[in-house]
Amino acid sequence: MGAYILRRILLMIPTLFGIMAISFAVIQFAPGGPVEQVIAKLTNQGGSDRLGGGGGDAGGSNFDVAGDVSSKYRGAQGLDPEFIKKLEKQFGFDKPPLERFGMMLWNYARFDFGNSYFRDISVLDLILEKMPVSISIGLWITLLSYLISIPLGIRKAVKDGSPFDVWTSGVVIVGYAIPGFLFGIMLMVLFAGGSFWDWFPLRGIVSDNWDQLSWPAKIADYAWHMTLPLTALVLSAFATTTLLTKNSFLEEIRKQYVVTARAKGLSERQVLYGHVFRNAMLIVIAGFPGAFISAFFTGSLLIENIFSLDGLGLLGFRSVVERDYPVVFANLYIFSLLGLFVGLLSDLMYTWVDPRIDFERRDI
């Protein structure tokens, strides 16, 4: 197992390099970079009369005719080329792309993500600041979806073809078909002061006076704020796991060892939980780390925006819109690295659930 783990870790290096290289290349052709973002903000505020105070300059240069440098950027006509060069140097665009990419990889290998372009804070501190919200959402969604999916999937497998199985399948399929963000908007309209009831708050995971509340009141306030976002996410999160659990149990129930166990006089409960459960739950349990990572970031992206939850999903969205590349690439790097390790962890969980599995004897 040690050799297998080592090979998987070594394979992460070219995989991570490919992800970052492709993303970096795509960014080079994306319009509206950070320099253009600054230019747009400056020109929207009235042009040169607001850039450097009353004298109408920026960095000590007069705003005469734009040269070749400023002509590279949309909206830069009329701005001083020296000012544009200073912006390029500030954001690191005065260096060739390959040199910037090499510096980025070297820094990221040491977990040095630099500072945000538009926030006065380091990228790592910014991510750590937003992480508790996303971890909270990811943990609750994963826990709730598994607590609902596994018992429901087992029940559906036992009652396969019955009216219970049919109508619950309809509910699961409808829930899976409805996008989480659309269901979240519907919940807001119904229960968060839209056209109907005003029962739940619209933003944040706690109230402004949360620090002043007692511990029971804090728990109640947290649950009150998280009810709508979690409901919107759970609806689609539990569907896949439910059907996966059902199909896994059905496959195991039809095998010969189950017939043998029943022939020996074991009760249905003993057969189901003493023999079938371990084999059927292999794929479900092994997928737990991946499900958590998915709920931790990807699944909560739109929900964080809808309910104004200040987590990594909202941070990533705003960073892309603002072209805050250090934050964008740091998020991509960290979660790509996490995803690769989670894939390895999922394989290790297979061996933990079923020691008969040996990856040492398999090719990668």
TrEMBL record:
Primary localisation category: membrane
Keywords, in A-Z order: Cell membrane, Membrane, Transmembrane, Transmembrane helix, Transport
Gene3D superfamilies named in the record: MetI-like
Compartments, as annotated in UniProt: Cell membrane
The name this protein goes by in its record: Microcin C ABC transporter permease YejB
Family affiliation: Belongs to the binding-protein-dependent transport system permease family.
Source organism per UniProt: Mesorhizobium huakuii
Annotated InterPro entries: MetI-like (IPR000515), MetI-like_sf (IPR035906)
Transmembrane segments: 9-30, 133-154, 166-192, 222-245, 280-307, 327-353
Membrane topology listed for this record: Multi-pass membrane protein
Domain ABC transmembrane type-1: residue ranges: 131-346
